[in-house]
Amino acid sequence: MNRRSFSRGWFILLMCVLMALVPLILPAQTLSDRPAWGFDEEGKAIVAVLPFAGEEEMARRFHDETMKAVVALNIYESREVPASVFSGGLEVPTDMPPSQGLLPAARYSLTGGVYEGSRPEEFYLQLWLWDMTGSTMIYTDDLVYEDIDGAMESLPGLVEWLFSHIREVVLEVPELSLPQEWLYTLGVKTALTPHWYVRTGERVPGAQSFGLEGGLTGAMRFSSLFSFQFEMLFSRDDLVYRGLTADDISYSEKLSSVFLTIPLFIRMNFKTELFRLSPMAGFYFALPLGQTRYSDSMDGQAYYSHSGTLAGFNIGMEAALINYGPGMIIAGLRYSGDFGRLTIDYNNPKDAAPDTSYRRDMFSFYVGYEFGFVDLNKESRSAQGRIP
Fold first, then answer.
1. How far apart are CA 68 and CA 74, in angstroms?
2. How do residues 304-345 score in pLDDT, each as one tens digit?
3. Whole-angstrom distance, CA of residue 51 vs CA of residue 117
4. Quick count: other Cβ atoms within 10 Å of Cβ 173?
5. Are the beta carbons of 222 and 230 closer than 8 angstroms?
6. What is the SS3 assignment for 85?
7. Residue 238: which of 224, 218, 252, 223 has the closest Cα?
8. Per residue in 66-124, pLDDT tens?
9. 8 Å CB contact between 346 and 355
């Protein structure tokens, strides 16, 4: 087989595939454009007008004018049901609902008949309006007359009166009570932080301090129950030792270090429409920034280097007030504890102690505000407006 024959074979195969796909594509487009049952392409409800019973000439005139009166209402399309449908002995319905099989596309139908009145030369036209969704009667009324021409002038009013009794039932879909479900959040927080310091050889904390910390907080949702939370916090340790003596002189010393702490959490999310309650646990890394500042009560001052990054674990509980303004208010309680120790490499000017090494136990009481981005429930809430 030469190259030209091979290429022609692939071309024929491709055309066969495309021709096979055309019937699959075209019906999908046609169905999407098809009007709802009982309505025409302009959105008007279809009204089938059946042949009227009674004296043939008067019944025909009333039938034709009734169709015109339905069209004049501007929200309905009238369709004539030919008398031939009722051939073979099938009776034209008047005060009974017509069969849905005879009117497969009609939302409503009109039946009627012309009858003799109780007095000589008196007649009346009786009309019935039917709802074809359940073959139920909506309303019926009659028009009594002696002069058919005068009756024709009153017929549009009768038709309008019948159709005024249509009450379309609108099913209200209840609003989906779904809270906002953010894919990720970003915010700020600040905290009060009591610290306890345990030096090497101590079994209980030998010093404590009370300070502030603050910074950025964020979270990334990876399931309906769990999120990954991360923070960047700036804090400061003020380690104070009192009651020290040197050369029979009492004094105190203070060691101040600034830290950038990066906590990483796995957070559980228990939500209601208004609140979120989140237990959490994880680890943190604390990077000392700059040198440790030494000062004492005798106006001594110096700066010393220290060991590198600290690490530790933390657990806590966070609550959030959801949908408060453009974001949410957060508040929580947290415990953190160092795995290792921070060692400050300095020589005490009073030669009271060698290098200082300590670990920390910390609590934090914090508040903050977070903004959410990418609401995962937005599509679910807006879908209610698309429910037919």
1. 10
2. 888 777 899 999 999 999 888 889 999 999 999 999 888 887
3. 20
4. 12
5. no
6. helix
7. 252
8. 999 999 999 999 998 887 777 666 677 888 888 877 778 889 999 999 999 888 889 99
9. yes
